[in-house]
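User: I'm preparing a small set of examples for a lab meeting where we compare how different chains pack in three dimensions. I only have the primary sequence for this one, and I'd like the structure in token form so I can line it up with the others. Please keep the answer compact; I'll paste it straight into my notes.
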Amino acid sequence: MITPTSNLKRASLREQALAVIREGMVSGELVPGGIYSATALASELGVSASPVREAMLTLVNQGLMEAVRNRGFRVVPLGDADRREIYELRVMLEIPATQKVAGIPSVRDHYDEYVGIAREIVDAARSGDLIAYLDADRRFHLGLLGFLDNERLIAMVDGLRDQTRLFGLKEMSERGDLTASAEEHEPILDAIVAGDADKTGALMYQHFEHIKGDWAVGAPRRATLTAI
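Assistant: Understood. Below is the structure token output for the 228-residue chain.
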């Protein structure tokens, strides 16, 4: 029987491996279409293969990777049709949901908290810290949706966001476009706190245009069987 201590340690290793793999996707070290070995990655991290494989299977469940028999795990490329479908789903789900948040008076009580997160996003964008950017961006958007008290909605939006946000950040940062996107968060928050659903929706539509444009990934580089 697994003791609670060993169970927690295993979960911790899995989460750490998941964080490393996600960082590799963001940095461009793991490229769309590339196939990566759980065993090789585990060796570089100095851990057993099991938690790394579990982390990769988590990404398979999220649609970000797929298992390749006898080879490893392939990072799923995101084509134009994929981005269009994800864009349409996020428009249908996330924009109306965020507009509903604008009608919740208690959000005003958390203004300082969320304006702080919005400024974290800008600071991370300016410094080129992509991992910090993703973390703060996630806390901002999903935190605000949390006021709707709908866990299924949050889980669906979170999964869709992952599929678009893990790729293209590095290129966007290098072009200098990431800061402009980051600076859109505080006006969205101001519209929500003001209770202006129409303005919130308009600003969110503008923010979402990055999925179709700025967030697009160029042609995948040639990949090999390797670890991060």
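A couple of notes for your slides: The chain is about 65% helix and 5% strand. Residues 1-8, 216-228 have pLDDT under 50 and may be disordered.

User: Perfect, thanks.
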